[in-house]
Fold these 4 entries.
Entry 1:
Amino acid sequence: MSGSTFGNLFSITTWGESHGAGVGVVIDGCPAGLALNEKAIQTYLNRRKPGQSKFTTSRKEADQVEILSGVFEGHTTGTPISLLVRNENQRSKDYSSIQNLYRPGHADYTFDKKYGIRDYRGGGRSSARETIGRVAAGAVASAILDSLGITLTTFTKAIGPVVIPEEQYHFHHITENALYMPNNTYATEASAYLEGLIKTLDSSGGMVECRVAHMPVGIGETVFDKLDASLAQAVMSIGAVKAVEIGDGTAVAQAIGSQNNDTFYMENDEVAKKTNHSGGILGGMSDGSELILRASFKPTPSIAQSQRTITDSGEETVINIHGRHDPIVVPRAVVVVESMVAITLVDLLFANMRCRMDKIKSFYMEEKDV
Amino acid sequence: MSGSTFGNLFSITTWGESHGAGVGVVIDGCPAGLALNEKAIQTYLNRRKPGQSKFTTSRKEADQVEILSGVFEGHTTGTPISLLVRNENQRSKDYSSIQNLYRPGHADYTFDKKYGIRDYRGGGRSSARETIGRVAAGAVASAILDSLGITLTTFTKAIGPVVIPEEQYHFHHITENALYMPNNTYATEASAYLEGLIKTLDSSGGMVECRVAHMPVGIGETVFDKLDASLAQAVMSIGAVKAVEIGDGTAVAQAIGSQNNDTFYMENDEVAKKTNHSGGILGGMSDGSELILRASFKPTPSIAQSQRTITDSGEETVINIHGRHDPIVVPRAVVVVESMVAITLVDLLFANMRCRMDKIKSFYMEEKDV
Amino acid sequence: MSGSTFGNLFSITTWGESHGAGVGVVIDGCPAGLALNEKAIQTYLNRRKPGQSKFTTSRKEADQVEILSGVFEGHTTGTPISLLVRNENQRSKDYSSIQNLYRPGHADYTFDKKYGIRDYRGGGRSSARETIGRVAAGAVASAILDSLGITLTTFTKAIGPVVIPEEQYHFHHITENALYMPNNTYATEASAYLEGLIKTLDSSGGMVECRVAHMPVGIGETVFDKLDASLAQAVMSIGAVKAVEIGDGTAVAQAIGSQNNDTFYMENDEVAKKTNHSGGILGGMSDGSELILRASFKPTPSIAQSQRTITDSGEETVINIHGRHDPIVVPRAVVVVESMVAITLVDLLFANMRCRMDKIKSFYMEEKDV
Amino acid sequence: MSGSTFGNLFSITTWGESHGAGVGVVIDGCPAGLALNEKAIQTYLNRRKPGQSKFTTSRKEADQVEILSGVFEGHTTGTPISLLVRNENQRSKDYSSIQNLYRPGHADYTFDKKYGIRDYRGGGRSSARETIGRVAAGAVASAILDSLGITLTTFTKAIGPVVIPEEQYHFHHITENALYMPNNTYATEASAYLEGLIKTLDSSGGMVECRVAHMPVGIGETVFDKLDASLAQAVMSIGAVKAVEIGDGTAVAQAIGSQNNDTFYMENDEVAKKTNHSGGILGGMSDGSELILRASFKPTPSIAQSQRTITDSGEETVINIHGRHDPIVVPRAVVVVESMVAITLVDLLFANMRCRMDKIKSFYMEEKDV
């Protein structure tokens, strides 16, 4: 309710502003006995770090994570894991010229009206640096999923008009191009498109897709905490996301039932589906097929063009945003989407453990035997 | 967490199966002093009742709501409001032929795997009757919004290929056609499309749009309980929804920043925006312009065509679904979307009351003066 | 947060006023596959029914429970269980004479100030009838505990000055006297005491004790959701409770460490404790020995003596409370305490299932094998 | 649910172990515009610091707090406030001799059984250092209460057999003796008692009382989130607390109604009560009179005497606890109790803001006027 905590059994509480002392996250409810060290978290964080290509800001951010609690001799202890990343290389002066202006497409105006005060330096809490806490927690969630044999593949599906159709996906390409696209040819095309926008001082939207394999069947709570509903909140809560789709997504509005229904059949004595329009979710629960989710990101609102806007005292003016900004948020947001999906899955996997009396009994009876 | 409760300060807990004794909702956190009677709730419920046109099931359901608690002498008392709708006219026999089959596109399989037991009659808990509780609560939430001057307009934007462009909206048409479309001509076209599908024993998807006017600025909590994130969960939790969009939605992925940024300006001494690509939300908070949300619904999975599927013991077979089913869920889902949006807004309006120290002080100091 | 919901994974939402249409509860998160019928719940409810002895009000209340959802063919389905008890035999007229008066020791004044409106009939929401929902849910929780081999024994430890020392407990006496005391001799003494108070138009306080055997070790979450902290909220939330004690309770304030520390030793290859000052809880987690909790109830505030008080318009006056009231709340409250303890234990037993990575892995891996 | 978060609208998440990198807290939901700096928090922290008298451990802990986020130019911004205290002066070696032993009266055994792993150094998460996060958050909550004119007075009521009766309270004495007792003569007596225990290598229990003046009427949510129920959880969650009492507490079990009922009367046109047996709470809501709460603390379990116990492999043995331990936890726990009370009050004050429709309307209408 207080806004900075997500999840119930595996819950994360993020904190921190762009130009404050640092950013971080407290993970509560991580089970004991998970192997964890700073390196594993750092690997995740590095995927969202700026300065990796010409399409990400040239700011150098070390973003070194420190584990402050919850890990003892290389394993989690079941107590809260507090992760800290100190802010460095802040150029607060860059923002002094815009402290009284409302940047178009940003949260400056809404923050000011809600709280009557705002940390204008780099967007403060609404900065993309807020996602560092999410990604650090996502690394932990992913480690849990990994030990359960559940795997996530996340990538850039589209940049502006460059959209990769599903049949052109080559997942091993994802790490071969700076845009995390599953097709190097499309990535080249997208690069050219972005270079054009850089020249015109503009920015581009894009789309991220996340696919999850080997989900147990039945994950997700009925009604409001459905798997898809929980994922929708998780992913829509990422700044700049304006749409969340599951499976066929918006295309279902134009579909007909005889085609949209996925036919069940048996394959090697296991339940299978001929198609996967549902994106792996039926009735809000995982159906055993691949979970497919897409998030549409708006173009970076910080552009170098002069823009008309207003001051916080209600005068119309022109704003020029300096500083270092990505022409597109998507490549760096890939790991953010993956993190939010992972965190959501872990939370619902845990909630699912108490839904059958027979399993609860064998859980506790077994314990008594030992 | 338990799945059937939504909201924190204004929270609803729904219960009930399609063919059990009834369905209902407990609303907790409704403020005292709101005028409320059964008629106001019934008006809302009637909007989702079947039997209103040839495109909704011919089942007659009285769906009369009874207020069991929380209202005294015509006003809410601040205590939980329990609302009950008894089930009637259940033809459980219709379902006995399919009790061991998994209907494609339904939650039969996932329910069975998750819980090891399922009430197969009419989909049980995953029936559309589950939404009665949401709509009854939505009526109460709407009454609260109404008294704050906030208004919701919800309608069918698209049915299959028939999509009404924004510039063709005539909101007074919404109540003039059985499909709740804001354009009677498009509604006639959509009717013809649906009639064709009825003949081929098929069903159609569709899209619902909800617009909210006169929102105060700054509603929505930062980070995870953003206004858009909360709405995404609320609306994605409705059965058959596969995508939720805010403002320009998926279109932002192809947009460029210079066009997507909404320019602030002053109009009659008030902050205004030249465009509304953001759909009324910036940084997860309402920005004072119209809130725009769209939900894409998949086609009704229950179709009269024979379909291939499997039994619960893993044998392939053919299923024939009898009973009475809508060829499209959208017209009746319009009020469900509106209800979930209303409930979410009320919850976040209440949460917002404690975000500024000066306002808290004047709230409590004023009280002491009285 | 909205106040009428308790628990997270096994959560209950109660509703209803003394003189409204009825009272009830929605239980969300009850696992599927639990045998459940109305009779089992009724047995629990009957333990709190009035009219069972001269020390309970002579009102006849049928209090017949109806299961409205969540049970199919004699077993829970994992979906919300809605339980309804219709109010009957309400004599609202009894209360018309006091509708503008604030009864001493009651919530009339605080309700009025908080909500600006109150259902004055029988205390409305603050009536002891509110506990019907708790007890109905407690019956379900107890059934779950029972199937895990965990047993609860709850009884009246003290009535006014009549306090039964631990070494005088005879648990089979509990059902042999109308006061639910574990010693018939003390019960006779307490009866005489109560009869004296009835003559002087007065009422008595009392103490309830609950003991839980066969708890697994380690139940309770660290820090804020400790087992004792959760129990304290659960039990203090019962009307008229003014103190909650665990183990030695208030006596620890005068104890010394060398005596208060329970010595660990081995008994039949199992960890045991020489004493149980801790009341079965160490560091907020169950320690495997008997869980011991006590609740102190204030005397029934409704007494037949004339009392001085004020009107809701601030005038001093005299109040005479008619109607039918127990001279003590404790005997009927025994099952309420037991219910709240049971609900809390189930919730924490479920939460505990996700605290070790090895157990989570075997839970899900086993599933995959099946 | 995850155990380390408390509160809903004003919520705190604590983290950290005794001998890890540090301890801290994230406060979410603190309103914007509150003046806050590190000094104000430090003042609170200093009240729980060891080394202040011969009755607190001689460990020197700097316990300097750092504000990592949520404060900008001396005021809170409405975003999460992250507070960090680095651990220093840890003598982990002190604990190596007991890493395989279960200390009597400690959480070693329960931690080990629950999680299968434990940070044995200094009790890890169950160390009293965990309360640093609570107290840091309590400082912020107190600042909020202070600005609303609500004042807390917390003190040591009893140490072993030395109990100060209410009529002997002199609140200005509290800061005049090392035991935070409201009577210097009793404090001298208690000191002598503690010195005796130090000589016999033993420890003492004690009792803390907290009194809150100037509470608005009606704070507390009905049923489960009652003011007293919430306080009971908050205070019972503090390590070593075994009983929580409101007003007359356990004494009510022996009281009679005619004496226990507090008579309402009018004083200077304001509602008042002749007595305050209720401890300022009626029906779970503040009644405008002084709120009175007591917590009973068990004796420090770490005593220097040799004690019998078992190893983690189930062998009986003798344990000798070295290190530096207080002979009583109470004096340092005074500020912990005060902090938990303050945090609870703030949370419920915020929840209360949405309980009347007329107040909500004037809150938002006023906003529109501005």
Entry 2:
Amino acid sequence: MKTASENTCFGGTQGVYSHTSKSCACDMTFAVFLPVEAKDGPVPVLWYLSGLTCTHENAMSKAGAQVWAAEHGIALIFPDTSPRGESVSDDENYDLGQGAGFYVNATQDPWKPNFQMWDYITEELPALIAENFSIDMDRQSITGHSMGGHGALTIAMGLPGRYRSVSAFAPICSPTTADWGRKQLTAYLGTDETTWAAHDASLMMEKTGFDGPVLIDTGTSDQFIDLLKPEALSVAIAKRRQEATVRLQPGYDHSYFFVSTFMEDHVAFHADALYTD
Amino acid sequence: MKTASENTCFGGTQGVYSHTSKSCACDMTFAVFLPVEAKDGPVPVLWYLSGLTCTHENAMSKAGAQVWAAEHGIALIFPDTSPRGESVSDDENYDLGQGAGFYVNATQDPWKPNFQMWDYITEELPALIAENFSIDMDRQSITGHSMGGHGALTIAMGLPGRYRSVSAFAPICSPTTADWGRKQLTAYLGTDETTWAAHDASLMMEKTGFDGPVLIDTGTSDQFIDLLKPEALSVAIAKRRQEATVRLQPGYDHSYFFVSTFMEDHVAFHADALYTD
């Protein structure tokens, strides 16, 4: 693991690191915020998965999460959204290929050799984090924005017991029925739609739910709301009788101005779960 | 004035606007954050002047100021740092020309026709703001980062009575004696150094001071600290017996991770002044 940069930030350290990923067969970059408390021992951690076109950098710089993570003594991890590089397959559209990994393990060519983002986020990167940072891997929670909200929800429900709480900002809720999903799941997983169900938050919610609290925020003026389909997740949460808070925020759109506005609430929500024994 | 974008943010509106500037003889872009209170009547305002290479966008997205401005019911204005465009003179170096206006009125060619940033920030843009936004121009304060900290301090001291308080993050404190300053003041104002004194915060502080409170933060690990020369301003403040808080923040560098860390303090500092009758 190489250190690209480390900046003092809210009393802690905002770092950017790179490593050669086995899962993705390329160099990957990620960011970690460590609160000052990490100097005295392992701290709980909140994962933040980003949306289409983003790298580790967007949320690190624009989501305003460090102030609240510092307040609660929680680490933040900002992974990249896909494998990267000249040797990695890509697509001319922004919503497929590099920057658009959708947090799945691709089984189809040309994506299969690199696009193993589920394994990367759930196995390889956690092992690297546990080895190199003062983080308590028994106290993890996860959040994300848009495609990253989809990732946070599907990963949290797909790995029962791993995360204490899950939240999402404007998540893609129904990728098996929406244009943000069908195209990518076809490309990465193939045309057998039965393989898609493990990557659809609404289907997973209805089938298994999440063993912990859930918080979802979506703006009523989100320009992509017809692609996100928050109604699919809302009905699944209601049918499941899932412990959850689902909020539609009047006037907010899909931008980081929306994410940063509600970040305080999300970090406090996760802190409640992370500090409960 | 044209609206480029408006996003709901912390209950208020983060907007980006453009207009044709007479002072700078080109189109200029700026950003305004209006807290929700602006709907009920004019609110006080904090100007934020940015540093070298920045546009209106950097601080708007990365400084984390809106959360605190919303808390205090204060508007924020983020101007650009220079005139822009193909018809505007530029330099091959990042620290001269476009993105590096240094908040002066250039008297030298080729800069003179466009680089009238003092007039733009102190006359033209305030008039445009007063006409178009629910902002109380009798309650203004000003801050900035690096070159923008230089701008905030020199403008605040150069216009007695205009601003109630002034603060700066890692300001360029001694442009008449440092490489961040001598080159630009020579280019914009010419070789007669007597014309430079009105654009050097330390010289102005020693000569006239500021009729209100001053707050300065600089990181001890600032990679540009030898160019900033905080010691020049510190001695001037002490000699002047200026009401001021000057802090050196251990471990912080020149980045927005530093700025965002202390933004809460700066906005609260200005709010105290802006809400005192």
Entry 3:
Amino acid sequence: MNILDIIEKKKNGFPLNQIETDYFVDGYSKGTIPDYQMSALLMAIWFKGMDEFETSNLTLAMVKSGKIIDLSGIHGIKVDKHSSGGVADTVSIPLIALVVANGVPVAKMSGRGLGHTGGTIDKLESIPGFRVEMPEEEFIEIVNRVGGAIISQSEELVIADKKMYALRDVTGTIDSIPLIASSIMSKKIASGNDAIVLDVKVGNGAFMKNLEEAINLAKIMVSIGNYFRKETVAYITDMNQPLGDSVGNSLEIEESINVLKGKGSQRLLEVIKNLGAEMLKLGKKVQTVDEGKIIIEEGIFNGKGLQKFKEIVEAQGGNSAIADDFSLLPQSKFKLPILAKSTGFLSFFDTTGLGKLATFLGAGREMKDDKIDLSVGFTFNKKIGDKIFSKEQIGEIHTNDLSKGNMALEKFKMLYSSGTEQVKSPPLFYAKVSKEGIEILS
Amino acid sequence: MNILDIIEKKKNGFPLNQIETDYFVDGYSKGTIPDYQMSALLMAIWFKGMDEFETSNLTLAMVKSGKIIDLSGIHGIKVDKHSSGGVADTVSIPLIALVVANGVPVAKMSGRGLGHTGGTIDKLESIPGFRVEMPEEEFIEIVNRVGGAIISQSEELVIADKKMYALRDVTGTIDSIPLIASSIMSKKIASGNDAIVLDVKVGNGAFMKNLEEAINLAKIMVSIGNYFRKETVAYITDMNQPLGDSVGNSLEIEESINVLKGKGSQRLLEVIKNLGAEMLKLGKKVQTVDEGKIIIEEGIFNGKGLQKFKEIVEAQGGNSAIADDFSLLPQSKFKLPILAKSTGFLSFFDTTGLGKLATFLGAGREMKDDKIDLSVGFTFNKKIGDKIFSKEQIGEIHTNDLSKGNMALEKFKMLYSSGTEQVKSPPLFYAKVSKEGIEILS
């Protein structure tokens, strides 16, 4: 076998087989295939794509490059969840509390934020004492005892993905559906769960800018999941505006708790209800999604979700009193009101720009090793289609640096538009992809 | 400027401008752009191509990466010649003797053979004493005194091409027309001549397998030459069979001398006459190609070409007595007759296979640093369409290793076919490309 033959084969549009795929993933992980050959191959894949079978083979090869977590010590059907990344995408924490509260175990490994998107692990670290790293045995023990735990993804998982992602990042080969799909799914497969719910974001704040691309990505990920006998369901949800009302780490913990108290923003709640219902269904706790949605909603109103959240926080060493006293969370020194620039209907958000604004304030990372400030970010309480009045307060910048805060206020003005005509809110759910096929929802 | 933006731009099909092209060629030559980004860009160029203007810009950027030879000390219009590489492509040496004998100066820098194709410099080195390396001043002095000289291409020329070619060779990006064109033309431009005749080979022994590709390559090279104000004419000639009757280094020197004595093989002579006439025309010695062909032919029959060849050999330190006594050239120990395997009409040559057979015998290189044996190779005196008789001697293997020689005899059998039906000889000239356009010749 020869890497040059594999490059030529892909370049000329022929599918790669499992042996070839194993060869280049293994060789690249071990350093016998150099970066410059891998980047040529990745660019050829960017142009020629990979079919579902090839992408599943690639995922398998990547899974084999690192540790595979054994969750067989956890009782029940363990259901995982993944979001392709968005802004104010405060879904995972309240979702997991509500699913676990209803008897489906969740042993989730999450990532940190990068670029304009936030990460669950960063958000959780704003809870004083909360440990995101622990031995595997303790992780399993907590899931068995409490029902759920969320830890930082092990560095030993899918070694190939770390090297390949770093290379893709500097060679213009990030935006390839088979490479994105295998990167995401290899980590999901290696982390050992039994079923997976995927939230594929689409819109100007997502990596996927159009529905067709998002559906293609969802289709291939569902196909990979099922290939590995892990039932996988994907929702395509909107990211043409921030999902929740808060962007920033401790701010999103506050919003998570608000959701569990029945005070969350409506669109965020809808996503949580649907994904949660799907997780309950995959976990065989309900027969239908509608049934699941009712149970998730009940978990909010009867306080079981909030209670479970507190239990998980305590089990992972965190101070659960934050749930009743937000002042125990990291707080920024300054809170600057965001006033509407004119009267009209909110018509447009530059959602990626808003994500970058949070990074500018210090809530996110441009580079993997950047330090972040857990207390900063912003809130706002209007969505597309809402009427706003000139000078009305529509949000708040949270900052520890007044001049940065004032710059953020100016930037914010450029990141939304309003007009005199009433604009319809964009749909929230576009499609659902499962082994049954594609269901268009909007 | 950022290499990632340049990769993205090309990947998405937008043309690169001069500033971007200079940036990546200069950065790669100097090592500030790493191999893995360059290989991703080269693969994107492989897929998206480059238009004529981009390719000229790339050529210019490459020229600037190394030394540019100043031939202004040579009187007259200096005309260069380049072949895209073939088998038994014994054109340059007799051609240059004949052109120089007719008053057009030729200051040629040539390369060595690689893979299945031979190189003029290797062939010349089989002449005892012949120096292919010398100071630039001496090179210019010889051209002024004798009319012509052929030396090995300076290592300082087009530094970027050496690095880029080595990278393309291991990343599946050799077979890209703009990359081939800029690689060839950058060296032609940097070597300082005033006009260029290109011989683009097409067929199963050439890099270009089909006429359309060959014409595209010729068009872009002619356009680059003219962009640099060096009038350039390209002929597309056949490489579906070896051009001359000899493959190997000292064997091709013998054939070169035979051509100058009026005893060369017909197809080889035709190419020499046409390219020579074109060079005389570019050098303003004749008005038309037909006029030039008559003068080239006269140069053979009146012995002026052979005389000029001897003068050049002497001027470069070689023993010109070889022209009258081939036993002064490196001779192989064994000469094994090649006998026709059956009676019929010769119908097919695996021309690349024949080139590789010469390499197998030791006449060529698989790797750049391989040692070669100047005495070995093979001759054969039949072309497609010729009648051959079973057991008739149609050629001779020249070897210093009997077992290799016997293996070569067996291999040779697999590298040609004959049949009962008379086959037409393939055309020799397919097209001519010049600033006037494309002229189809067959």
Entry 4:
Amino acid sequence: MHTLYGNAPSGNCWKPAMMLHARGLPFRWIEVDILKGESRTPGFLALNPNGRVPLLQLPDGRTLAESNAMLLHLGEGSAWIPSDAYLRAKMYEWLFFEQYSHEPYIATVRFWVKHAGKAEEKKQEIVERTARGYAALGVMERALGASPFLVGERPTLADIALYAYTHVAPEGGFSLDDYPAVRRWLDRVTSVQGFVPMPFFG
Amino acid sequence: MHTLYGNAPSGNCWKPAMMLHARGLPFRWIEVDILKGESRTPGFLALNPNGRVPLLQLPDGRTLAESNAMLLHLGEGSAWIPSDAYLRAKMYEWLFFEQYSHEPYIATVRFWVKHAGKAEEKKQEIVERTARGYAALGVMERALGASPFLVGERPTLADIALYAYTHVAPEGGFSLDDYPAVRRWLDRVTSVQGFVPMPFFG
């Protein structure tokens, strides 16, 4: 059985839980309290030297970090990964876009505002990151105005990766009012077969 | 023929140039001066709504953004991607690690210091990002103390992705003195078949 070390409110941790569920793979969830530093203990660093959740432990005990690497690994051989080479490449593009241009802004602002109580302390940085978060939403809006899912007509790993923090963006103060295609897409993703809401636990 | 829009000193732009070369694919390079805002013009935004280089245009005219998505696309069917599912997953892990935990620190500090003339303006942020850059080098040192390449015995796309900005980290003020396994690995990567130095052009 797989073991998933995660933090319940984390979108990054929801991603592999969602995919394990969608693939019908039973797994054990071990809650890691990142606010208490539980992802930086010597024991946890032995599992993931980068000190982050999620951390996936395979049935044979080997470990894998990085939520989008888990999506690619768990999604192999399924319809979540397009068989067309170009569509597959575009799916990769969105996975890296998510980690570079979306998560550091939308997820980080939400974390500071909602979970870490740092809305005041990080005030100026939140202003800057919020602008970049809206830029990411603009890129998504443009794509989702042209196709029902991020990579064409069918859901892929890209939709799971981007759903994670987009649907909770308002918790970080983002308004989705000007992003109607994104809002329709968020609804659409919840209807995809295998979808489970976030948080998976808790 | 492929067309690659890139900025010569950029490690992210070197990655797909290196892989096109390694796969024996001829391509056209179009230099984009990011300091002059050439990646944010209306014409360029029509190619990449996220306003970044590199941007790869396939022989049929379709486009692909995100350097590591290009590596995965161009590397398909080659020995640069491990055939073993777990090693392949670990390669994905490093590709996301590079974009989330390495590039925003090591590449960004180098860009500010060496290319954008912002060493003074960004002084405090450089201190913070330098610490995180060293943390990323520490994760690499640990892995490269255990195996010659990031994912085991053979070079993979992960080595290309991490070589890009690690080998120019000193240009951003990083010292590799305490990272002997990283230094040996940097030498090792230059001996891999198909390797070309950075910058590819210029």
